[in-house]
Amino acid sequence: MSASTLFLVIAVIAIVGFFVGRHRALATADGSIRRLHSLPQYYGSHVAVLSFAPAVLVLAVWSIAQPLVIGGSVQSQILPSDIPEGRDISLVMTEVRTLADGLSLAVSSGDMTAAEADNAQTFIGDLRDRLGALGVALGGDVRPSVLAAAQSYRSATATGDLIRTVLVLALAGGAFLFAFRQIAPDFRARNTVERAVRVILIGCASIAILTTVGIVLSLIFNTIQFFKLYPWQDFLFGTTWSPSFQGASELGILPLLWGTLYISFVALAVAVPIGLFAAVYLSEYATPRVRAIAKPALEVLAGIPTIVYGLFALLTVGPFLLAAFGEDGVLGVNWMQGGTAVMTAGLVMGIMLIPFVSSLSDDIINSVPQAMRDGSLGLGATKSETIKTVVLPAALPGIVGAILLAASRAIGETMIVVFGAGAAARLDLNPFEAMTTVTAKIVSQLTGDGDFNSPEALVAFALGMTLFIMTLGLNVLALRIVRKYREQYE
Amino acid sequence: MYDDIRLAERTDTMTDVKIAARNVNVHYGDNHAIKDVSVDIGDRAVTSFIGPSGCGKSTFLRCINRMNDTIDICRVTGDIELNGQDINDKSVDPVQLRAKVGMVFQKPNPFPKSIYDNIAYGPRIHGLARNKAELDEIVEKSLRRGAIWDEVKDRLNAPGTGLSGGQQQRLCIARAIATEPEVLLMDEPCSALDPIATAKVEELIDELRQNFSVVIVTHSMQQAARVSQRTAFFHLGHMVEFGETGQIFTNPQDERTESYITGRIG
Ligand SMILES: Nc1ncnc2c1ncn2[C@@H]1O[C@H](COP(=O)(O)OP(=O)(O)OP(=O)(O)O)[C@@H](O)[C@H]1O
Ligand SMILES: [Mg+2]
Predict the structure, then answer these.
(1) What class, spelled out in words, does domain B17-88+97-261 have in CATH?
(2) What is the whole-number distance in angstroms between the Cα of residue B179 and the centre of ligand 1?
(3) Could you tell me if A149 and A257 lie in one domain?
(4) Which of A81, A207, A252, B228 would be a feasible disulfide site paired with B46, CB 3.0-4.6 Å?
(5) Cross-strand pairs, B187
(6) What is the pLDDT of residue A114?
(7) Three-state DSSP class for A379?
(8) Alpha-carbon distances of A263 from A201, A302, A353, A416, B159, rounded to whole Å
(9) Looking at A159-294, which runs of residues are DSSP E strands?
(10) Looking at residues A464-468, what average pLDDT do you find?
(11) Strand order in the sheet with B213-217
């Protein structure tokens, strides 16, 4: 049985277990729920959990481990001469697995009899074409040692699968019976369910944490790999960014960092004042009616995908700025050569961040107690004096937190940059010049069809690492500030 | 029971009327919190408001400096005149009104700023000090009058929110008198104070009476008797009885007043 069928069978056993357990619990208590320790459905869940969880766990572990173990044991059958020059044995092992799976497929689709497949070495010359007709693509003609390994692989897998099926089904059935026999009026079924819930929650939390750890580790390892091929001093302090897959690349991060910071700065210069003032208006001046309409309207902005903002930058803001600041522009200053510029991306990114800043700040301003405002108004301060001297200072740490979160979003933004700022890495002060950012360059380094082990591709990980450190730092800072602020009125 | 303070011997010293309220009604949405209240608050005198919890004392107090404007659902009708001028008139700026009619709130509400900045807040926005030295002087004087100077003089830069509840209450009193208001509204200013601090605050009230008019809400009958010249008794949104303090406590006209001061309703 395949893993998915097995899983379905276990699931069915568990569902049946639920109903049987529930029924059985009621029966042992002569139909009176009050004599049971737990409600009947807890007994049902107890049977279901016990028959499901261990069996699925074994199934999962077995299915992951079996190919590794079998692969390791058949590896020795491959002749060293069949391993291509300069390549790893893992490449040949891939071929072994493809071949083994192809043969099984051929048998199950009726293209070969089982006996034919077992004796495939007799028509080894035709093998590639016959499997190719079934959609199994093999790299080259099948070599005898590879076929022999594939055959052992196939038979070992078949045995393994059989053992797996028996084991898993026995486990599910055994657990079912065990749990079923445990049912008695004073058996504490609720506690099993409680434990199961806890395990599920722990599991989800660990998945979240482990993936983060995994991503960070892969970033770190690839970054180290990169620094083995390219000197870190040149990466961190180089002022030229000119990758070329032919070699002799210059991979200095400074122009990219500069572009990132410059564009983010323009974005924040747009978003922070507008967002903050919008928040002050919404929380302090707007009537409840206006607020009920304006706040959701502002938050709609936050739901627009950034690619739409990117198009907006490319098609509207860029040409508009060019018409004003470009050659023959209205202002006659000729500062701008093309529609893509730091200014274009910065403005659009700023618009994107307005709802982010305003809705966070609005929440924070609202959480300043009314008694603070009363105290100030009661002393004869005007509304704006109250806001300026009492409300905003009290909300300031939280607002700074909001701004830092907005900054880390600006730094990580990609699509708006690609469309709005262009792809030229440049160290320049003119905000009407095209520049690019770390994120945009990560995309362009990995979307070509270059070799993934070259420094030109690996540099993407180093760039990602840099970005990660920057945004992580900002987020940690922001969270600490926000947390400190929370304690203030408690 | 209040003989020891010789209430009966007092005479009604009130001369001028500082605040005249006529037929004031307050609604919080559908809740009719103040019903047809008319009161005259004398100049250079202390008026106390007493009554059971929830009867509308704070609400009425907040009408006098229009703090109820800040509550969306609150609607105030009727006339309140300060120095003969209607405070709800369009020509009156509530901001200026509040500078003249200071308030100490029921719950202490120091700003999350330093003790010094808390006190200096009012003088700064109203430009009462020409230089730092004058401001220092105002701050010290106010803290002394608020009976808290000795406790905070060494930590004027510490946050006001870090003080104890009773200290915060006195800080707020000091903050309110720093702007030199003509009328001071005090909502239970001694609710969290020990007898010594209470005595000091009462001393302050007595001193303020020389120049200002003071309205104090209190749950302590003894305190009302000690500090005020006139007393108003509120019950369920009505002002039941208003008169000379000695009169109210020794010879109440209304039986609800009598029940309240003898502890039978509350
Ligand atoms: N902000 C408000 N919104 C709605 N109703 C309010 C508000 N403030 C007070 N009320 C209502 O008005 C009535 C009078 O309240 P008020 O605070 O004036 O009582 P109080 O006499 O000061 O009581 P206490 O002695 O407990 O302070 C109460 O019924 C209260 O529920
Ligand atoms: Mg009150």
Answers:
(1) alpha beta
(2) 27
(3) no
(4) B228
(5) B217
(6) 80
(7) coil
(8) 41, 19, 13, 10, 39
(9) 241-242, 250-251
(10) 92
(11) B101-104, B183-187, B213-217, B46-50, B230-235, B238-244
pLDDT band of residue A169 (cuts 50, 70, 90) is very high
CB contact under 8 A, A380 and B98: yes
Q: CA A160 → CA A54, A114, A165, A179, A199, distances in Å?
A: 19, 18, 9, 28, 29
Domain holding A442: CATH number? 1.10.3720.10
Give CA–CA dist A277/A83, Å, rounded.
68
Query: Best interface-test mutation with A: which of B103, B128, B186 has the largest number of A CBs within 10 A?
Result: B103
Q: For residues A139 and A269, state if they share a domain.
A: no
B103 within 8 A of B66, measured Cβ to Cβ = no
Sheet containing strand B17-28, edge to edge, reads B31-42, B17-28, B74-82, B85-86
Check whether residue A284 and residue A155 sit in a common domain: no
Q: For residue A315, what are the domain limits?
A: 241-489
Interface test with A, best of B73, B109, B177 (most A CBs within 10 A): B109
What SS3 state is found at A115?
helix
* CB–CB contacts below 8 A, A to B: 68
Is A29 part of any domain? yes
Distance in angstroms (rounded) separating the CA atoms of residues A25 and A190: 13
pLDDT digits (tens, 9 = 90+) for A109-150: 888 888 888 887 777 777 788 888 888 777 777 788 888 888
Measure the CA–CA gap between A16 and A176, rounded to whole angstroms: 10
pLDDT of residue B1: 45
Q: Is B244 helix (H, G, I), strand (E, B) or coil?
A: strand
Which amino acid belongs to residue B40? D
Strands B46-50 and B230-235 turn out to be: parallel
Residues A128, A130, A132, A136, Cα dihedral to 10°? -90
The set of residues, in sequence order, having a beta carbon less than 8 Å from that of A148 and lying 6+ positions away, is: A77, A121
Around B264, how many Cα atoms within 13 Å sit in the side-chain half-sphere?
A: 6
- The verdict on residue A211 lying in a domain is no
Q: Is B168 in the pocket of ligand 1 (CB under 6 A)?
A: no
A379 contacts in chain B (CB < 8 Å): 98-99, 102, 121-122, 125, 175-176, 179
- In angstroms, the CA A358 to CA A395 distance is 13
Contact criterion met (CB below 8 Å) for A147 and A127: yes
pTM above 0.80, yes or no: no
By alpha-carbon position, which residue is closest to atom 16 of ligand 1? B56
Q: Which two tokens stand for residue A379?
A: 């002393």
What is the signed CA dihedral for A320, A324, A329, A332, rounded to 10 degrees? -170
Dihedral (CA of A148, A150, A155, A160) sign? positive
Could you report the per-residue pLDDT of B81-102, keeping only the tens digit for each?
999 899 988 888 999 999 999 9
The 3-state secondary structure of A289-347, one letter per residue: HHHHHHHHHHHHHHHCCHHHHHHHHHHHHHHHHHHHHECCCCCCCCCECCCCCHHHHHH
Per-residue pLDDT, averaged over A246-269, amounts to: 89
Check whether residue A280 and residue A378 sit in a common domain: yes
**How many of the other CB atoms lie within 10 Å of CB of A181?**
9
User: In chain B, what residues touch A371 (CB-CB under 8 Å)?
Assistant: 105, 107, 109
Instruction: Of A370, A368, A383, give the one whose Cα is nearest residue B74.
Output: A370
CA–CA separation, B94 vs B83, rounded Å?
15
Residue B237 pLDDT = 92
Segment B7-48, tens digit of pLDDT: 545 555 556 889 999 999 999 999 999 999 999 999 899 999
- pLDDT tens-digit profile of A78-97? 777 777 766 677 778 888 88
